[in-house]
Amino acid sequence: MTLVQLEYLVAVDTHRHFATAAEHCFVTQPTLSMQLQKLEEELGVQLFDRSRVPVRPTEIGKEIITQARIVLAESKKLQEIVHNQKQELSGELRIGVIPTLAPYLIPLFITGFMQKYPLVRVVVQELLTEQIVEKLNHELIDVGLLVTPLEDKSIRELPLFYESFVAYINPNHPLAKNETISASELDVEDMWVLNEGHCFRSQVLNICNRGGVARSEEGGYFDYKSGSLETLKRIVETQHGLTLLPELSVMEIADEKLKLVHPFQHPQPQREVSLAVHRSFLKKKLVEALKEEIIASVPAAIRERKKEQVITIKS
């Protein structure tokens, strides 16, 4: 049994296709298949059900693959020990970030981070929370930037800051006259929310405790499925109703639109923004440097805020 065979094993599990796995391992498919066959012969078990498309691991294969990932992670730690002795941080840092954070948080820290660590190649992907967790577990990204708690034992959460929710209200809405609002005043029948799959949608509905469809004051229904907070802002501005937004999304809003922003009464509902890594994660110095840069880059009012009323992702 070799580390190379374990790498091929994990690659097939990740991509569920022998040819694709071989391509990512920079070998030919016959070479990869032969090495996996040797591994199966040595262990005396079948690791994959090759009759299915895409290929899937057998029950015993799942257990062996889990252990193989641990072995490979531990072997990489040996390289990391040597790498960490170098004065400058370098290498690739693959970050997955949820869409309701990416456009507002990434610009705050990315320039400063790259100036401090010019030898680091940063690769950022916008992903939903479930995709980030899956890619962390399959070592396809190094760190996730998302909202917690996740309640996933395979993931380690590193809280960064607590961001308040605010209401964004059309001037003609009855609540627009209130300087602050409370969750009890919200009616989801007036509210625009994100598509299914966004954790922010779940948090908004948890604040309101129920769901619905936005209704126009002129009569009829306008049902719009959006994956963008910026689109929801435009709809509120030009149509009717309201939406809930994370605090960072309104930090640089135009002065003429500030009147649409209404904070909640205390205790304000918050979301916990964290870095997420796999339990056996590598690149610890890079992740720690990223954490420090993000915390330093957010506005002081957010950075210094204490945990009060964190809204969970689960309903």
From TrEMBL:
Protein family (similarity comment): Belongs to the LysR transcriptional regulatory family.
Keyword flag tRNA-binding: no
CDD domains per UniProt: PBP2_OxyR (cd08411)
UniProt source species: Pontibacter silvestris
Name of the featured protein: LysR substrate-binding domain-containing protein
Cited Gene3D superfamilies: Periplasmic binding protein-like II (3.40.190.10), Winged helix-like DNA-binding domain superfamily/Winged helix DNA-binding domain (1.10.10.10)
HTH lysR-type domain span: 1-58
Transcription regulation recorded as keyword: yes
Keywords, comma-separated and alphabetical: DNA-binding, Transcription, Transcription regulation
PANTHER family: HTH-TYPE TRANSCRIPTIONAL REGULATOR YBHD, LYSR-FAMILY TRANSCRIPTIONAL REGULATOR
